[in-house]
Amino acid sequence: MVTNTAAGTPPAASPIVYELAGITKSYAGQRLTALERVDFVLRKGTFASVIGSSGCGKSTLLKIMAGLIPPSGGRATLDGTPVTGPRADIGMMFQQATLLPWLTTLQNVLLPIEVRDGKAAAREARPRAMTLLQTVGLKGFEASYPDQLSGGMAQRAAICRMLVSEPVVFLLDEPFSALDEITRDFMNMELQRLCAAWEATAFLVTHSINEAVLLSDVVYVMAARPGRIAEIVPIDLPRPRTLDMVNSPEFGAYVRRIRERLDTGAFK
Ligand SMILES: Nc1ncnc2c1ncn2[C@@H]1O[C@H](COP(=O)(O)OP(=O)(O)OP(=O)(O)O)[C@@H](O)[C@H]1O
Questions:
Q1: Dist. CA 261 → ligand 1 center (Å)
Q2: Can you tell me where the transmembrane regions are (predicted)?
Q3: Domain 1-89+169-268 - what CATH class?
Q4: ipTM score over 0.95, yes or no
């Protein structure tokens, strides 16, 4: 049973934020079914990850959850309403920070608000953006341009850009995989801290078993062709998680279990 969550509350007691029911996806012109009957829920304040081999359908799943592509069948529901397109209450982070090079860090953080609600709304959100930048250690870099930031700093700015709209759910597509290992470890701990502070509901796509176990309350192991959830692994490790936990026997047991499932299921 899972007893620890990013926010410190038992997931069984927390309400459902996001629900996927019978999601299938076939791409036009392809005989291959990318996803077949994927069902799960994300509960308030919990961190879930999906892990699977290349091509098993993780990105397809995340794009459907973000409303970027429609499913062929089934339903995605956020906060009780069907997800039929991109929405302000869905926050996303990608492998690349994708900051616009001609805007300052602060302007980049405010961009989603400016695009959606206009310049006045962006001006109003300025103090919130400044506080967010301070929270992630970017105070003093508000006026810097993206080429003056390191990879880790750029991703911290991208975190602020995701948070500024105060989303209900965070969808994270390997956000730190382009960073060096030391920065990545640090960013994962930062992410954990922010998720706890926000009581965030988060969903991470990753290729790293260690990262999935370290951050998650539950790991969904995907198998390929057709993409489906092969196993649900609740991670019952105490929070806050620390990097030295990866050396514990409990951590190792979770990693082995997931790896075995990937070995036996992912390439069938
Ligand atoms: N736009 C598309 N048109 C046709 N087929 C697609 C399209 N996008 C993905 N696919 C196919 O759907 C399957 C799942 O792809 P997807 O990108 O979701 O996998 P993934 O698990 O995210 O892979 P990776 O880990 O390599 O990023 C693959 O067989 C892929 O070839």
A1: 21
A2: none
A3: alpha beta
A4: yes
